[in-house]
């Protein structure tokens, strides 16, 4: 049934997603409603707000201890996926998988913080790490995977998602929406699969992994949408889309790959999802260590005092990081955790 979340059915069928590169924001941040319909996931009642406005929360680098002081202090590690935890082949290395397992044995929880949705998690990540927590769709959903409980949801409002779709539908391009851990498009959008902007491999992946509905506007009208994604457009078209979407309220626009746009609720960032876990696990912000490589990781780096940039990180991330480590193809996350946490 549409809307029913079940992590177990995804654990053996993960697929690779897109890499992450940069982020920008627009609109106002306000609380989003939570779907309490029968088809919605189970929710844990949180006693305090889980979303921190990362644009006004900062920690001075001078107050950050040296990494050798982290051992015994960190209780939760949160890592971006593409360009950070995963290699360029979109898989997790044996060393990194083993390190995540070692963290758990040492009482340190681990979560991914990604723009991907549940059905797009890599197969070996789920199988080899016994993944417990996940912040998905840029913070739109936060999961306790082992208990199959959705801890928080930050969907787009109906008015916002409709406004975004109207802008996108006016142009000859493909786009999709994320709902219940899956990607959906409609017949009108499928014609743009043939666009020369997409590689043959990307076209095959899109056809296999996207559900097609008769009409996307009708589909979103009755559902809480996590994110709208436009995978590829020319620079000129991107500029026009940004101009037309700028007036839409309660919207964050992110760029997670060259030429793409992702649209989330105005209060939806990876920080919101991680903070749901912080409360769920009864932690403090300085007990969290975050890893990232690109622009949509900036809110994490601005909020949590212990942040680690990959060697392949973009300059803006590297400048904000408290610490640095190796690149994603050289087990940078594992290298740092082994040296300073285990």
TrEMBL record:
GO terms for cellular component: cytosol. Residues 1-34 are annotated as: Disordered. SUPFAM superfamilies: HAD-like (SSF56784). It comes from the Bacteria. One of its GO terms (molecular function) is magnesium ion binding. Pfam families: Hydrolase_3 (PF08282). Residues 11-34 have a biased composition (Low complexity). InterPro entries: HAD-like_sf, HAD_sf. PANTHER family: HAD SUPERFAMILY HYDROLASE-LIKE, TYPE 3, PHOSPHOSERINE PHOSPHATASE. This is HAD hydrolase, family IIB. It comes from Mageeibacillus indolicus.
């Amino acid at each position: 049934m549409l809307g029913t979340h079940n992590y177990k059915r995804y654990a053996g069928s993960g697929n690779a997603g897109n890499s992450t590169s940069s982020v920008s924001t627009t609109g106002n941040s306000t609380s989003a409603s939570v779907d309490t319909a029968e088809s919605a996931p189970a929710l844990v009642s949180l006693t305090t707000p889980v979303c921190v406005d990362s644009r006004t929360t900062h920690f001075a680098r001078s107050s950050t201890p040296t990494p050798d002081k982290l051992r015994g202090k960190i209780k939760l590690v949160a890592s971006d996926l593409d360009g950070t935890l995963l290699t360029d082949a979109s898989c997790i290395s044996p060393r990194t998988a083993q390190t995540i397992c070692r963290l758990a044995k040492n009482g340190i929880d681990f979560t991914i913080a990604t723009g991907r949705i549940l059905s797009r998690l890599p197969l070996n990540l789920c199988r080899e790490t016994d993944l417990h927590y996940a912040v998905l769709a840029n913070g739109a959903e936060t999961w306790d995977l082992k208990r199959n409980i959705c801890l928080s949801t930050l969907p787009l409002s109906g008015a916002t998602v409709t406004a975004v779709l109207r802008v996108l539908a006016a142009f000859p391009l493909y786009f999709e929406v994320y709902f219940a851990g899956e990607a959906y498009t409609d017949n009108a959008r499928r014609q743009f699969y043939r666009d020369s902007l997409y590689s043959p491999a990307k076209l095959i992946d899109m056809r296999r992994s996207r559900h097609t509905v008769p009409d996307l506007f009708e589909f979103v009208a009755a559902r809480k949408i996590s994110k709208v994604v436009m995978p590829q457009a020319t620079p000129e078209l991107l500029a026009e889309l940004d101009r037309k979407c700028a007036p839409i309220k309660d919207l964050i626009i992110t760029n997670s790959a060259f030429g793409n746009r992702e649209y989330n609720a105005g209060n939806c960032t990876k920080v919101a999802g991680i903070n749901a876990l912080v409360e769920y696990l009864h932690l403090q912000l300085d007990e969290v260590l975050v890893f990232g490589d690109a622009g949509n990781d900036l809110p994490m780096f601005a909020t949590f005092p212990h942040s680690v940039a990959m060697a392949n990180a973009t300059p803006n991330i590297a400048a904000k990081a408290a610490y640095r480590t190796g690149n994603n193809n050289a087990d940078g996350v594992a290298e740092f955790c082994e040296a300073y946490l285990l």
